[in-house]
Amino acid sequence: MRRARPGAVPRGMGGTPSRRVAGAAGEERALAGVAGMHADHGGRGAVAEAEPQVRERNASRLWHVTLSVSGDEAPTAEVRRALEQLAHDHPFLLTSRYAGDHAEIRYWEEARDLHDAAALALRLWGEHRATAKLPPWEIVGLEVIDRETYHQRLAEGYGPPPARSVGVHPY
Is 92 inside a domain boundary? Predict the structure, then answer.
């Protein structure tokens, strides 16, 4: 992922003069003038070349998330009820495993990139702690992998075993 200053000219745009206009969701896109058109591209300008890159960069992807939490012992019935409520509040939850002092949650997250998926995952437990009445445990582990890697691991027999079934289960 390329990082640049806000308003910087994207790669592939060269030094061609362009205007910047606001697009959907606050994104900016470059508009090249006639001077920015290249005859060797059949009349397509630098903008036509950059648009697929912008769409690809902003496209959401699916990420498999495994979140591990741990803390002081809590009644398992309360842990189960809280995880069931979390599953209701967070519809992409695949499975949860729990004991009295720890739990593991697996789910799919849709995000633009790994950083966004990880940030969302790290906020999940804290944001739902009050509404789902989750135990006051801390996050002790996080794994975020893309869909292709998840399926490759399963095909090779590595990685976490597939979820028994969707839902909340004791260890």
Answer: yes
| CA pair distance 107, 92, nearest whole angstrom | 6
Distance set, CA 58 to CA 3, 21, 25, 150 (Å): 13, 17, 11, 22
Q: Give the predicted TM-score (pTM) of the model.
A: 0.64
5 within some domain:
no
- For residue 37, the enclosing domain spans 18-58
User: What digits encode the pLDDT tens for the residues 37-80?
Assistant: 334 444 444 444 444 554 455 689 999 999 999 999 999 999 99
* Alpha-carbon distance values, 107 to 23, 33, 60 (Å): 31, 46, 16
**What is the DSSP-derived secondary structure letter of residue 45?**
B
Strands 102-111 and 93-98, sheet pairing:
antiparallel
Is 50 exceeded by the pLDDT of residue 120?
Answer: yes
